[in-house]
Amino acid sequence: MATCVVWLPHQQVFAISRHADCAAVLLDDETFISGDGVALNPRANRLGRGTTLNSDGDEHATKRSVLAHRLTPKAVRKMTSAVEEKGREHRRCGPEQAVRRRCRRSRDGAADVDRARSRGLARGRT
């Protein structure tokens, strides 16, 4: 069976539609490089630099190992009620107000990220 690859002229990208082909592409980080970005616009790719999604090889494996245990089906099920409550909060007051409330609680989002990373690393989840 031939690979189903189509050119999307408006987006100026190729798209792969078959699951097996998509899986093969995702597993071949030597041919298909994510570190240069995976989004359809330069700004999103620039903002995504250094993330798990926009990384390859050993760098990707290291970043993924820090997050993987938090994304198992069991771990995600444990978060369901908290996520649903946040969704209700956003619907009640709107997303902008919810973000403002969160920012008032924490003035430094970068510090929050650093604290979360250090907790994960301190537990040996590197």
UniProtKB/TrEMBL annotation:
Please note every region of biased composition (Basic and acidic residues). 83-94, 106-117
Transmembrane segment boundaries? none
Question: Which stretches does the entry tag as region Disordered?
Answer: 81-126
Organism, per UniProt? Rhodococcus sovatensis
The protein here is known as: Cytochrome P450
The cross-references to InterPro entries, in alphabetical order and at most eight, read:
Cyt_P450_sf
